[in-house]
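ARCHIVE CARD
Drawer: 12
Card no.: 0347
Subject: one protein chain, sequence and derived structure
Cross-reference: see card 0346
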Amino acid sequence: MRSHYLTTVLSAALYFASGSLGLNIIINNDDGFATVNIREFYKSLKAAGHNAWIVAPVENQSGRGGTLSFTDQARLTSAGQYDSVPKGAPSFGHDPNDDHIWYYNGTPSACTLFALDYVVPQKWNGAKPDLLVSGPNFGSNAGPYLYTLSGTMGATYTAIERSIPAIAFSADDSQTRGYKEIVSSTKSGAPDPATVIAQLATNLVNQLARYNNGQQLLPDGYGISVNLPRITSLDDQTCLSPNYTQTRMTGGAAVSKAVFDEKKGIFHSENTVPEKGANTCINGDCSLPSESTVIPKCQTAVTLFTIDYDAPTSNQSVPQQSRLIAPLVALANENLKSMPGGGTNENRSASNTASSAQLASSAAPSATVTQTQKSGAEESRGTMNPFALLVLAIGLVVLL
């Protein structure tokens, strides 16, 4: 299992290096720059041939949403997360052993701006970012409520607001750990969950990289939110290579309510799932499954979103871009066959994988590519919008 995994990583590195398809990528998060998820993601993206740079908070900044907060102190008043940076060190800087790993003492949104307005112009020698990825977060960020609350999402939509394509990655039921706490030997024989999560996230990034052909990766104002299920490699092989499924945010999503503790005299929050409210589907394709319903089934939820918050007019139809993500999801699923644990999930069925011919036409009804999505993709090919080249390239590669 482990040798197969390493072979996959090395093959990806050689493929991208030889094809000059690597992207310039900023990696941010809200859990902190010294956590295991972001460091494994960094290593995975670099192994795939991308020019990746971590620019993330020096401390845990979870739950800060899009709050913009820059430090008013030139030096740290306390040691950085996991003693990664000593007290009294500058409020921003890089790892002494790797000048591609940067920290800043601010919120995730502030770190995105620090990356775009300081690190990139000062350190990238004129190069521009192709993509910002945020996470993978420790814990799911499914639903509209967590979209607004999550610092992982805040880092993402801050980049999109600055015309940088961005993807947020979150992993359900994962435990916050420092990067030195990686588990080298698991009961399942597969890598540490952080390593598996990083490879699954990199797989999706790679599919975008393969077909960008110098074009912008996503249309202006659009981003992708990816929520992975709990990866079980520490204990067993139940969920190691979850299928990617195109989803929507609304439906079965939790929000918070205030609960009063009479003994302590204080309030705390608890989850509640409203029937309407945050689960009212207004935009997009309401026939898609929700993030909250597919994640417990060992599926990776892939949701296209936009930062245009205006209410739709009565004559607006389902955005074609949301249907065009279906071929990307299908190809990412096809690539799972060569990744560790491919086909081992207990709930995987034949309907979750598509043949090459089906990928070319997006014609097969399944849990990941529906007939509704197929129709939207076919209509969009005639409009040549920013995703049309991706759809056509996938078809050509499959046919060849």
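Annotation on reverse: The chain has eleven helices and eleven strands. The longest strand covers residues 131-138.
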